[in-house]
Amino acid sequence: MTNSELWIVSSMNQLLALARSMEQEAISGYVALAERMRAENRSDLADVFDALRQQEEQHLGNVDNWIGKTDTAAISPVELAEPLFDDEGAAFVAPELLNSYRAFSMAVRNEERAFVFWTYVAAHAPTPEIREAAERMAREELEHVATLRRERRRAFHDLRRSGGKRVRADIAALEQGLADRLRDRALRSSGDQAQQFLKLAEEARERSALILARPFRGVAALDGAPEGVEGRLVPLCEFLLDCYLALAGQQNDDDALLRAQTAAGAVITCLHAVRESQSESLA
Predict the structure, then answer these.
(1) pTM of the model
(2) What is the CA 241 to chain-centroid distance, rounded?
(3) Fold for the domain defined by 166-282
(4) Which segments of 82-127 are extended strands (E)?
(5) 4-159 topology per CATH
């Protein structure tokens, strides 16, 4: 994780200031994208970015309400040491190459990065208060991920009504497949990255064993896994994440809900690591 040492939060004031700055960064990004789409006569995409901006404004309102309930001094704006919002070239790419699915995909990845950020902050928190606050932010980001992924699926089906052959999902088997793919990636890597993939592979095997021992209530997600998804790391992580987020919404007891959310968070961390390694290989 680049410059991760700059993500260590030492006070509640700093945590709240960071949360506020992150939401404002996203709002500014979506405002700029909406304005550009209007200038390019793409009102359909301007509407999508407006909706995303409104969601971020609601998130900002939640942070402001939290700030108002604390005994902290005035929260001063901070400049993020490492920007988390990434428009992935949407500010410059030809508007003809954009669509609502790509817009929501970008938003999903931004929320996933925010989740990873708060998970990291929680893991390195110097006090229980900061850890609990960061964990709360991570849970909220996970909810945002679930919402945006549903919107992205809707956009995908709007673009492509007919899909390919699908097979029934077996999450335990998919997790075991993920463990095998991660182990293969570890063997092709070296140093800390190899150790990271080995650790992620072991975690996937543990999730597979736990699911076999304590199955979730309900059906996985999306009618089943797209054929061939198990052969590629990123699609496999993406599908498993959708499965866990869907299962979380079907559980009727707190323990099962927490297990589904925890698994979803672990898969986001895995997805982030895989994407980061791919970016490094292209650098």
Answers:
(1) 0.70
(2) 9
(3) Ferritin (1.20.1260)
(4) none
(5) Ferritin (1.20.1260)
Higher pLDDT, 221 or 233: 233
Task: Count CB atoms within 10 A of the CB of residue 189.
Answer: 16
Q: What is the pLDDT of residue 2?
A: 41
Q: How does pLDDT run across 163-210, given as a tens digit for each residue?
A: 444 445 688 999 999 999 999 999 999 899 999 999 999 999 999 999
E strand or H helix at 136, and its extent?
helix 128-159
Cβ atoms 205, 183 nearer than 8 A: no
The tokens for 214 are 């304590």
On the question of a common fold for 4-159 and 166-282, the answer reads yes
Q: Taking the domains of the chain in order of start, what are their residue ranges?
A: 4-159, 166-282
Helix (H, G, I), strand (E, B) or coil at 86: coil
Nearest to 80 by CA among 119, 114, 112: 114
Bridge partner list, 226: 166
